[in-house]
Amino acid sequence: MTSMQCIEPDTHLSGDFPYHFNQEGLLCHKDTRETFVFRYRRGDVLGLQREHQLLGRYITMYVYSLLEEQCHLQRLSLSASQLDPQLKDFVFISPKANESPGTLAVLIQDRGTVRCGQWSWRMIASKGLEWGSQLSYVRRALAESWEVLIMNPNQSSSPEEHVSLAWECVISRGAAKQVVVVMHGYGGVAFVDLLSRQPQDVKGRVHAVAFVDSSHNPWHQLLDTDSRDWLKSKSRKWVLSPKPLNQPVGSLKAECRQLSAGTQCHEAAPAACVDAIFRFFTKILRNRSPPMPFDIVTRSRSHGAPRAVNSPG
Asked: Fewest C-beta in 10 Å: which of 39, 95, 172, 214?
């Protein structure tokens, strides 16, 4: 297994950047304290692009610092060589994730410019960390005494290759007996691709799957019948809908049970349905836990002697 190491973060967050996060997790101007608003400036496309790049970089570094300092996650390099200065193939992982035999929660974001710890940097900028980051998922998992692994599919050769590499280097060699996975957008495509590559290993380790406005298609991706049946029984798909959160949303082509995400905004969907997803995970894991056998000592009315009765299994 690739050795665990804490990689020093890039702490240069630009002293000239005029915004910062307040205690509520909102991005505010340092002087006016007004919350950040995306604005379009006609005739200054390049300037706006540079501003957004700086904004995305600031958000990325800030979220990394929270994952490391508050959630105590570490960056684990997946690169064969430790000499790669950019360390593009890395994941965030909780310190005992490799050795804990319990539950491991895996997060896979959408494709594009989002980085580790983010569902949407635009949502972080406009509505705050609780809406656009993965922090709420990480905290919920840690509160359940689960371990955590956050994938980083957009800083690799492809999302599919990154997910496959992270599975091979970390998850398949770890001690976790129960894996739960949350995927947003194209993250679902990358997971289904992994399932098609390593069906037996994935089905043996993963116990619950949550697709959030996912763009996967198990009929267009190379899945066998058993894998499609497994996906139908182990997964739920939260889709954009005007219906209240967790209400059924029917579809003749649905490969698994579909539920409303409680929003019609793709970037807000993961935050909107976090409670529903964790209830689903908890229910699946609880149902998989076998009842513990125990003996009840009773006293016979007729003989007055104690006797052991095995509880029903």
From this structure: 39
Q: Is 212 helix (H, G, I), strand (E, B) or coil?
A: strand
Cα distance between residue 108 and residue 88, in whole Å: 16
> Residue 16 contacts by C-beta under 8 Å, 6 or more apart in sequence?
none
Q: Are strands 27-29 and 74-77 parallel, antiparallel or unpaired?
A: unpaired
Question: Residues 177-222: pLDDT tens digits?
Answer: 999 999 999 999 999 999 999 999 999 999 999 999 999 887 778 8
Kindly report the pTM of this predicted structure.
0.84
Cβ-proximal residues to 295 (8 Å cutoff; 6+ apart), any chain: 308, 309, 310, 311
Q: What is the pLDDT of residues 149-174, one digit of tens each?
A: 999 999 888 999 999 999 999 999 99
Do the beta carbons of residue 247 and residue 259 sit within 8 Å?
yes
